[in-house]
Every structure is written in structure tokens, then in C-alpha cells.
Amino acid sequence: MSLLNLIEKDQATGRVAEIYENMINTMGFIPNAFKIYSPSIHVMENQVGNLGYFMRHKTIGGKLLAFIRLLVSEKEQCAYCVGVNSGILLQYGVLPEMIAEIQLDPSKAPLEEKELAMLLFVLKVVKNSNSTEQGDVDKLRSLGWNDSEILEATYHATNAVASDMLFNAFKIVSDR
Hints:
The protein has 176 residues and is mostly helical. It has helices at residues 14-27, 32-35, 41-55, 62-75, 79-91, 96-104, 113-127, 134-142, 147-169.
């Protein structure tokens, strides 16, 4: 049970009801990860917009994004997000024992070199944002990433930190 009063489907009106209906049509249910934002339509619309944008991203794949969220959430000790993103990675064929190994050593993530470099960069940012250097960005560029993609992947990781903090602070519960 959340510390906030969340709007459930049967209580939703207006824009919240529209967003919930779209989620049901898209995902089959309304994740608690979105109900947590229901007290503020502004925050909820931003989160839904971000989700839609990244779900359809042309160059930053879903597997990379799930690894970003998993490993950021592991660092932030957000059980909800670790569980959700582990489940997503299972759909990509990443077995539970592999996930445990990758949580200990992210460099073992089964990603192409380009994606692995991005993963390690954004984890570096999340661990210590003052630690980045021009060489880090130059390496990503040399692998074919452009500045927009570098910014967007980093934005995704730092937003995951913020979401983890909100989920932990307001005691979001598993969707099961």
C-alpha cells in the first residue's frame, strides 16, 4: 500500500481515466509504477510521455533500456523496478542466473559493444556524475552514438534514479 492516496481505475476521471484506458489497451493492466503518479496529472503525463518515447526509440533498444533501469534500480535498492526489469529481460532471453551475474559485473551484460559502452557510461554517471570526461563521450561517438542518443540514454538512467526514489519513498508495491 502506498503512502499516497492513489487513484484506482474505478475512481479515475478525466485525463487520468484516459491514461488508464490507454495503458489497459496497451499493456493489459495499469502498473503501480503509473498509479503512483496519479495524484499529479502533470507528473503522470510526463511519465507517460517518456514511456511512449522510449518504447518507440529508433536507436536505443528495449534490452539496453531494461538493463539501464535494472542496474540503476539495483543501486537504488528499488525492489519494484528490479523485479519488473528482470521480468522484461527474461523476455529478451536473459536468464535469472545471468541477471545475478550482471548485477555484480555490468560489463558482462549480453549487449553489442556499442550498447555495452553506453550502459557502462550511464552507470558511471549515476554512480558519480562528476566522474565523466570528454574521453567517455568521445568513445561513445566513435562507436556510432550521436549526442542526442548519449543525452537521451543518460536522461533515461537519471530519470530511473528519480523514479526509484519516489517508489521507495512512497512504498510502491508489486503488481502481483
